[in-house]
Amino acid sequence: MGLGRVLGAGAVAAAGALAARRLLDLDPPGGAARWTRTNHRGEPISLLEGPAVAAGLVAGALAGAGDGRTCAATALATAGAGAFGLVDDLAEDTSTRTKGLRGHLGALAQGRLTTGGLKVLGIGATSLLAAAVGTRRRGSAAAHTADVVVNGALVAGTANLVNLLDLRPGRALKASALLSLAVVTGAAGGATGAVLGAAGAAARGDLGEQDMLGDGGANALGALVGSQWALGAPRPVRLAALAGVVGLTLASEKVSFSAVIERTPWLRSVDELGRRPASASGAAGPVRGTAAENPAEDPAAEGTAA
What we know:
The protein is mainly alpha-helical and 306 residues long. The chain is built from 13 helices and 2 strands; from the N terminus they run H-E-E-H-H-H-H-H-H-H-H-H-H-H-H. Helix content is 66%, strand content 2%. Helix 1 (3-26) crosses helix 8 (191-207). The radius of gyration is 18 Å and the shape is globular.
């Protein structure tokens, strides 16, 4: 993967994210109040980062993900995850307490479609479609079908996992950048530039607690990173990555990622890098908007959900 393609994708993604944010700031759809939340400091925080980052990621993926099929697949997965995440951000019924993947799937089993359930179905469908577009046939039809299913699950699972990490300022941006860099030499390695460019454009506002990714931005980031792994890693690596994603997702139903990071010195140091000092009333920092997706995160103990 050429350095020029990575740099080009980064420039396009950063410019796209910044331009989208400027347009959204001029006239936020539905009014600014619809996009404003309050963090544990009692300060307003904007969800407009999410759609701006998603727009930059799609533009960067189209510019640098690779050949035509890979570009189309990564852009489709990213746009689909961002769109369904944004629906959940703006239309979630906060009067109910449906939390986590298990909660939304349970509601579906009872015939009740939550916005979270719609997001699960929508991201699953667009991820599978993107995998069908981007996965090249190697071996028999059965082997190809299995590859498509594994790749689709990896894209959707990574979209959800990055969303679960968006509980502190900058955490999802940092994790996505590291995961993307790990596969920069793969078939979709140029998309690493898109991840770094969009993350760089959003970092100041996110770390400064002025902005948050929300589901729309975090799901889009995760879907693009998942696409890189799905379309650029060998089959054994993809299977191991999927197992890791599934394991962490299941663990999130019982274990607080924030608590694990807090008691692991090197993880805590990386997590706090660039962040504003925590206030005395919320030493762990603000819980982000996606806390509702992770029942193991305790808003009462860690702050008010943004």
